[in-house]
Amino acid sequence: MQLEPLFVWAAVTLYAAGAVVFVVGFVFGREIVVHAGGWVAVAGLVPHLLAIGVRWARVGHGPYLGFFEVVSSFALVSVLAFALLVWRYRSLRAVGLVLLPLAFLLMAGAMLAPRADVALTPTLASWWLTIHVTFAKLTYGSFMVSFVLALVYLVRGRARGAWANLLEKLPSQAVIDDLSFKFVSVGFIFLTIMIVAGAIWANEAWGRYWGWDPVETWSLISWLVYAAYLHLRMTWGWKGRKAAWVAVLALPVLVFALIGVPLVYNSIHGAYIKGT
Amino acid sequence: MRAVLRLLRSPKLALGLVLGVAAYSVLGTVFPQESLDPAKAAAWQLAHPGVTAVARPLGMFAAFGSPVFFALIGLLTVSTAVCAWARTRAARRSSGAQPVTDHLRERLARRPRVVAGPINEAAHPDVSPVGAIANAMRKAGYRTTIEGDVVSATRSLWGAWASPVFHWLLVGLFVVISLGQMTRAEGRLPIPVGGGVIDATENYEGPIDRGALYPGHSGLELRARDLQLKTVVDGMDRGESAIVGLYRSGTVLAERRIYPNAPLRWGALLVHPGKWGYAPLLAVEDTAGEAVATAYSYIDQSAVTSDGVGPGGLSLTGGAVQGWEVGLTIPITGRDAKGVPTLARSLRVTVTRPNGTVSPPVLVEEGQRIEIAPGAWLRFVRRGMFVAVSVADDWSVPWIYALLIGASIALAIAVFFPPRRVWLMAVRDGEGLVSIHAVTREQRGSPAFPDQVATIMSTALPDDVEVRVVCN
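Output (structure tokens, whole complex):
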């Protein structure tokens, strides 16, 4: 019996169930249901990690080649980010309203893609691949959390009635705003290291550290967009709603760079998401 | 001049340039770039003549080498340098000791950020509240000084330098990358296996990507040996590889087996594996059999047609056949069970004279020769193989690495070690009650910092003393 498909189905089922229970519990104000939903979703990490492990043992590399592996690992990072954030800041459970359904959608989307094994080519066989991809995942996780926190900030600012009551248990808007900024700051460091590692690796593999390949260019664009956020924050004093809007609008640029560009453009980076 | 400096120091300009470079880069990915795929760029331009008429003069098909891009980057570099200078001056001010002013004292007395107390001094005669808090701050990693009745606690003041250092390193990066691009060269050099070639312009195959100020090739000899079509490293087949060495006057400077992610490195030179193929050695001889000139022809092993593998070519040198062109193909005698062609030990040779006439193809066996002109013979000396390596001559790479790593570290310090200051003062109400007032300053303005200070103060004081953060 093939274990990997079993584990993948178990993970997506738990993510789906957890997301539904969490959202329903939140909407109806049932604390225990929210709690249960969160735990069910986090429990999905176990079969997900097992699926990744089984596949890793079979193909000889981590989850970073081909659409299925890449998007599946982003789903894992989303749930992990939720788990770590709530463990550290219990009162920020509301981020699960976005992160858990997102994780389910990512995993479901990944399952629609071909799951054929993608072999590691000689060009990709390098320690730099692990470093580069690890920081790519950390980048995505950090900016995703900052995006969700900014979204929560904006929604809460306009929430009325039942939604306002639901969201009142969150920390103050100033704390949410500051946390969103902190995650952008950390994500910016990760993004910088990802780009630096990629440049060093490109020089080792191809003999040039930068070639204006579309993926490279869009990574730089993402870096510039988040640099603009930090400038607006630190130099212009943009906080609150303004900063939240920038954090919300910046994430699609990064997601396009990480997932969209390799699908749209012919690129030497294409192998990592097209698997060819 | 002041107006110019003021403009360059302007955060608006900096932000505008950052977003400008981002927007321009987006355009650079919308239009196909000639440097990445010339054929695709040409086809796109043919298919979109209207847009091309506008985009081409703007340099959109070579966006990242266009004057517009260079102007944006140049301005951004200057703006970053001016901002870095301003940040350096600010860091000098903020990282040093800040005397306790009357304004600070008044703020401590009337608008503190954290308040502990009131403490009944008679009930806690053994407790020196300010001293206890100062001790707790020291345990938390703060450095404390006393100026009169005010205790100053500071932490990570050196972190104030991280932002200017980061910006200076960015400026350095812009400069080094620009200089590096102007002085680098990269091209493809075929090396016969078992032989060597000199790193010189005439030995490169195809165009050399050369910066405007490139001083010239190294003149070192590159040798190749032991070509393997399958190279297993750490359990993985890395493909074709050969041992390539760099030599000066016969002395090896560096040598290694090169394959993907394992280039040969020496000084500013970086040698990467490229394609491989067949390198028959040809000689132009006189009637007596004396060789007038010898040369390799490089035939890409992947250039397989129904005729054979090739064509390869060679421009003859020496004597009456100077400038004549030789076309070479290696005939295929059959295919094995996997469809891999079996190659003959002969060459199919055509000769093109300067007047354009082409001789009919002739099969020449290894070691044999044919007369191509009265008194001029072409000998197929021996079969051979070659590896074509990519040679990049770029001194700036290690500097770029150092600047990038330094900038990443400076960025991390700026994020994780913002300078923090706390001032503490005991405020007595004259009736035996004392409150400890604190003013806090954290460079990033984190709203959590006063809470952290309040927590430290709580640990230093008796349990019955209230510590609260005041919203001013």
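The first strand of chain B starts at residue 114 and ends at 120.
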